[in-house]
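Help! Submission page says 'invalid entity' but I think these are all valid:
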Amino acid sequence: MFRLDTAFLRTSHPIAALRLCAARLQDDSRWPWIVLVPRVEGALEIDDLGEVDQVQLMREIVLAGAAVRAVGFMLGVAVDKLNVGLLGNITPQLHAHVVGRRADDPAWPGPVWGAGEATPYSEAALTRAIGAAENALRR
Amino acid sequence: MFRLDTAFLRTSHPIAALRLCAARLQDDSRWPWIVLVPRVEGALEIDDLGEVDQVQLMREIVLAGAAVRAVGFMLGVAVDKLNVGLLGNITPQLHAHVVGRRADDPAWPGPVWGAGEATPYSEAALTRAIGAAENALRR
């Protein structure tokens, strides 16, 4: 019965189905950025998940961090810091953002959420970014 | 050898020592807001923690969410949504923010980080807020 909120379809592309989450690449080439959406119907907050799923979400956040670093490497930008955010003020379906930040990025040191307009990937770069993320998530 | 970054001493007040983290109340009465700092020397990213500590961090984030709701209740504001963020762009020592948001708060639906200036608690409200948080964290 789980259905991905259509907001994610508009702003991101599928990378992989992890054990708990749909992993998606945010279509904003300003930052290597993965969105994780637990496939649990009706979950809005972390504590809407059972304890096993909460632990799995943490595992997948750490895994997505490695994938974000891999996407950054592919884009030719070093990730200085990972930012993790679970907000949901605009799209309430539970999801986690994992974003690679660098000291010269357009929003540093502020948060990426709500910062300017997304810069979509070119088709070629999107394919490469998804490939890099997919490889990293397989480990 | 763990030492709390002095930035936390300036901006927050101690609530409790959880198993992994120092739990602190952010001194900003605009939002019920708890900061968790794992007492692990040199940790900057989640994956600097061992797996057991990663799981414990998730547990304490969930626990802090309940405490944030309790502080909101004490302040007379309903928490509509929890926001969780691990950024560290300004203060690199690993820490998690757990913030209670409401649809009429001063930054909604944007993030709280970097939004305006903190409104410190009065002494009486601070004591009540810390008390409410401490009680909730004990459960």
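Support: the input was valid. A stray whitespace character was the problem, and the output above is from the cleaned input. Chain A has three helices and five strands.
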